[in-house]
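Archive entry. Fields below.
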Amino acid sequence: MKKEENRKFNVSELVEAGLVEGGTAEAFLTGSWRSDRPVWDKNKCIHCLNCWISCPDSSIKIASDEKRVTVVTGIDYDHCKGCGICAAECPPKIKALSMEQEKK
Amino acid sequence: MIKTIYSKGKLAAKTGNEVMAEAMRQIEPDVVAAYPITPATEIVQIFSQFVADGKVKTEFVAVESEHSAMSATLAATAAGARAMTGTSSQGLCYMWEMLNIAAGLRLPVVLAEVNRAISAPINIHGDQSDTMGARDTGWIQIYSENSQEAYDNMIQAVRIAEAAKLPTLITTDGFIISHCMEVVELYPDEDVKKFVGQYKPDRYLLDVDRPVTLGSIELQDFYFEHRWQLAQAMRDSKKIISEVAEDFEKTFGRKYDFYEKYKLDDAEIAIVVIGSTAGTAKVAVDALREKGVKAGLLKIRVYRPFPAELIAKDLAKIKAFAVLDRADSCSGTFAPLYTDVVAALYAAGVSAPKAINYVYGLGGREISVAHLTQVYDTLSKIASGDAQASTNLEYINVRL
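PREDICTED_STRUCTURE:
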């Protein structure tokens, strides 16, 4: 794991004052924090993007389809902390996102 | 009497607070955020007048507390500005949380501090309990014997802080220096500005091309290394303080060191003291010298970082010395300065000198030439073997 490699940094390698470069949150994998995981049903999804705009960890993956329309493509389980906001925001009539207990 | 040393220097009658404000005007920081407190109020009050009169381009932030004053000042520094503030006593106590954060984030904040007793009982007069309470916060601490030193220290502080990446506070003794008018040599604005230079941080929060996060959480895996870096920065700052003092002497003519040795080199007995009481002690030393007593004085200027190795060397040949603390640590044993001095000697293998620790002057209690002469008399008796050095913390001029 990247985090384990970071542990080896000594005082002369570490930046002063714990200053952290921009954009480095991507390298910090928080997926293991999850107790519940969101499960996305590709067939039910209407690609309204409510989940994407609500996700606090940018963990709803999107892409452009062949018609250049933005669509949901899945969940980034490396960063998703399992808060469940996406499932709560998914329209009740659609229910493309549901929460399941994380398997240990 | 202070005379002009610098060719373009001019003498003026100023109080300690006035010269600190004058130094701030000449330094002209980008941001000053402050909250008033006796006896430091005047420093930022006078400075805010400079802002109102358009004499400086500084952004003045009138905040609602000292906690906010230090927060705003360190935040401005983090954003990439040169920022300063001023406070005293309870104000410094209220800043305590943010003092540690300024140091931990390695931000070169400069603080004009006036030493005042801390509550309770409430008291507005001079003692050093406030800054002694902040001695382990990672701030460079520089004390001044008089207004001239306060002015010169302020000018040096900016460069020291920015080179060491450590917050730095300059102090004067409350009322004794802060409100006493003295003759001071002031240097021309442009010369001070040239000496101080521009603040050029490596990294800062408003640098949109190289964005950074400052102040993130660090647990068992990283915290210790960054605290070591902070402690090491304090150790490394000794070289920076010496270099800035050397350049200051080259520029303006006044010599500064970690401490001043007053008739110490051939002394048999000595007092170690911080701040304005050194001036009183010099009068006592001169009188004793006339009588043939080999008395000397070691006046601490830089208390953090503590110049331990140098002090051990200079006190090694002394027969008996007294460390005078204007703060009581209420530790059940000794006061802060004594603890530092004795640890310095022990670490250097110096065990011959006899030492006593006195606490004096709390809450502005008078400390006179007679009090200090009495200390020297006691030291003479200890040095000649006629008396034993007290193993307890002793007190001067308190009704026991």
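CURATOR_NOTE: Residues 29-101 of chain A form a domain with the Alpha-Beta Plaits fold (CATH 3.30.70.20).
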